[in-house]
Amino acid sequence: IWWDMGGDSTPEFRYRTLKAVKNIPGAERLLFNPRLEDHLSADFKTPEQNIPNMPATGDGTDWETCMTMNDNWGYCAHDFRWKSTHDLLTKLIDITSKGGNFLLNIGPKADGTFPQESIERLAEIGDWTDVNGEAIWGTTANPFPTPPAWGRVTQKVGTDGKTTLYFHVFDWPTDGKLEIACLPKMPYSVEILGNSVVVTPTLENRKVTLSGLPTTAPHAISTTIKIVVDELTEGDFALNPDVQGKFTLTPDNANKVENLLVQNTPANFGGWSASTAGHLDGQGAEWIINVPENTKYLISGELMAVGDGIINLTINSEQKDCNYTASATYALQDFTTAITLPAGTHHVNISRTSTLAAWNYLNLRSIILTPENLTGIEQQEKSNIIIDVQKGLLTVNGVNPGNVISVYDLMGRLITSRTASGCIENISLPTGNVVFILKVSSENKATEVIKLRAE
Fold first, then answer.
1. Local structure of 28: helix, strand or coil
2. Which of 10, 247, 338, 422 has the fewest CB atoms below 10 angstroms from its CB?
């Protein structure tokens, strides 16, 4: 039953209606949307005119986005704000990849006919599904914590121990090669739906690269590549480190989220609640990471909070309490704690300890695991470079003309970069107990990496 009403004005009527329906014999087999009972015990959610912000794998619930083709639910002769076929089709793919359904509204005219604009868009979407429909109908959500930057993923799990993955490519490569960084195993078969070209897969460093693709996209909006692999296991969903060796754990690449809100852009975890001080049970998130070699990681995070508190970080069975401080805006905080992990797959879980008896907000954008050697603590002791930070001015002494001096924050974002003109360079930095990473490099010399703090 899809209720299309609600609000606070008719609570008694809504209660009586729902009670009457639930008393019908066999009512336990009925499904309800949340609009009659204000999300109290509904079977599925119905967000309207938007795609909810949630992890790439969905949030584990049943939901459907309800949307119009222009701005009105009914016919409106003066509404010319039609969504393009490109917009509607990529929305369909995005929603499906997150485990949702697309409820697309058409407002007929007074005589019951469809507006020509609706007919044209539906026909174009139909042409696409004639070729690619198997990548939508009967599929489940993307299994990988992080979707590829160039598109989306849907899947079908077979009874034969194999999984069919559908990679929806929005941004088609022009060089005939496509890297699928999230796929760590060799495919049994690869094909482009609606195209007979032979595609060659190779596997290296836990990522698949496809070669022999057409240099022009077979479909201008989204081309589907169908790949069959052995059934995916937990280790296949593990996150790999970035090119610097870091892991940046966000709501978007979480493997599982429990009783937390995922909100805004960039996404953050919110809705941490407590009635008493202490550990908040049943609220947190999990990631699976693939550590390539034995590494010591320093732990930091980007957050905003009304008061001081503790993030409980548990990797496998080892817990690290990460103390954070109040911040009125999002800030990167060094938790001054570290953990050493052997090579292999590891579970990373976060929860929270409340320091107040009542709820006090924490919005968490990310947890960052940075290899200690990236911060250059050991290199700094051996380096010929002398650094000095005073009142926002960084002085770098001992560089060579032509060296490139770069300063990054702990998220790996470049703050400033310059080419040294002499052996001493002065660089202005933001202040306020902020941690930076300084890199000095040249063509003939390995990069010097030094961690520094601007008080």
1. helix
2. 422
Helices then strands, counting H and E runs in the chain, come out as: 5, 28
The CA distance from 112 to 173, in Å, is 44
Q: Is the peptide bond before 266 cis (omega within 30 degrees of 0)?
A: yes
Q: Tell me, what DSSP letter sits at residue 264?
A: T
**CB-based contacts of 181-184 (< 8 A; 24+ apart in sequence):** 181/148, 181/207, 181/240, 182/144, 182/146, 182/147, 182/148, 182/153, 182/207, 183/144, 183/207, 183/208, 183/227, 183/229, 183/236, 184/208, 184/235, 184/236, 184/238
- Phi, psi at residue 12, to the nearest 5°? -70, -45
Nearest-10 Cα torsion for 280, 298, 332, 366: -50
What pTM was estimated for this model as a whole? 0.70
Retrieve residue 437's tokens.
């990473």
User: How far apart are alpha carbons 285 and 333 in whole angstroms?
Assistant: 19
Give the C-alpha distances (Å, rounded to integers) separating 417 from 66, 388, 424, 441, 451. Answer: 47, 17, 15, 11, 16
Buried/exposed code over 224-236 (b: 16+ C-beta within 10 A; e: otherwise):
bbbbbbeebeeeb
For the chain, residues with pLDDT lower than 50 are: 376-382
